[in-house]
Structure formats: C-alpha cells, structure tokens
Amino acid sequence: MEWMDSVLYLLYSGFRISELLDLRTDAVNLEEGTVMDGTKTKAGKDRIVPIHSKVRHIVEQRIQDGGERLFSYDGKRCGEERYRKFWWSIMKAATMKHTPHNCRHTFRSRLDSAGANKKCINLMMGHKSKEVGERVYTHKAIDELKTTIELVTD
After folding, report:
1. What residue ranges do the domains of the chain occupy?
2. Does an H or E element contain 110, and which?
3. Strand, helix or coil at 93?
4. Minimal CA–CA distance to 4: which of 101, 81, 89, 123?
5. What is the distance, to the nearest Å, from the Cα of residue 69 to the centroid of all Cα atoms in its chain?
6. Distance spanning both ends of the chain, measured CA to CA
7. pLDDT band for position 48 (50/70/90)?
8. pLDDT tens digits, residue range 96-146?
9. In this structure, CATH architecture of domain 4-149
10. 3-class state of residue 138 by DSSP
11. Which terminus of the chain is less hemmed in, N or C, by CB atoms within 10 Å?
C-alpha cells in the first residue's frame, strides 16, 4: 500500500509528521547510517537519529527513487493534509485508529521498555529534559507494571 513505508519509518525513527515530510535526502548519511534533521525545539533541530536496520531498505529505496525529499508526492513536498489522507486510508485498511503522532509515543515507549539509555532516547526525540519525554511520551502496559513491582524484594 502506498505510503505504508512512511508509517514504518515513523515507528522506527520517532520523527514528527512535519519532520518526516520535510526530511531532505541530503540529510541522510547512508555510510554512517544516520539522519540529521528535526524541528520544533532547540534540542530537536539538527539532531542525529540512527537509521534502524528494519527501515534502512525504505530509506535506500526512497533515495534511489530520487527527489529532494525522502518522502515526497509527485516530486514535491507532501503537505500534512494530503499525508493525513494517505494515513487514514492505511488505518482504514488495517482497521486501526491511530494518528501519526502515536508513532512517536510508540517509539519512545518501546525504547523505554527495552531498557534504552534515557539520555539517548531524549537525544533521538529532540527533548532537552527527561521530564517531557517520560511524562508525555512513555506509556506502560499493566504487564510491565506487574513485572516492575516484583523488583521490590525483602
């Protein structure tokens, strides 16, 4: 399905929808396996985000397709309104109701659950303080809470 690769990229990069759509191919360094991009906050601008091995093929294919932007529509920047139409058609086909921003929450929560270094998570997400990321973006399932409470011993 068209644009499905963008959903995967969001899930494995933590980028905002606007950052995805603004992402230029010259911000990608395949040799180093990184992307330098980001907007919105001082901490988020020009941040370095590694390209996850599970989406590297997407990045390589999009670069090979040509164009100034990694995710473009008819060779031009795809606007958020148009992208959301693509997004909702993907969600409808998958019988899901998530927003593009939910991918950012999922990215942080999955890293946190895997025990990733908090400083690294904040750097990749473009958060200066850990409070924003932990308070707003990290979600826990009841199973994780049950496992955590059992860490308390005599």
Report:
1. 4-149
2. helix 100-113
3. helix
4. 89
5. 16
6. 53
7. confident
8. 999 999 999 998 888 888 888 787 888 888 876 555 555 555 555 556 555
9. Orthogonal Bundle (1.10)
10. coil
11. C
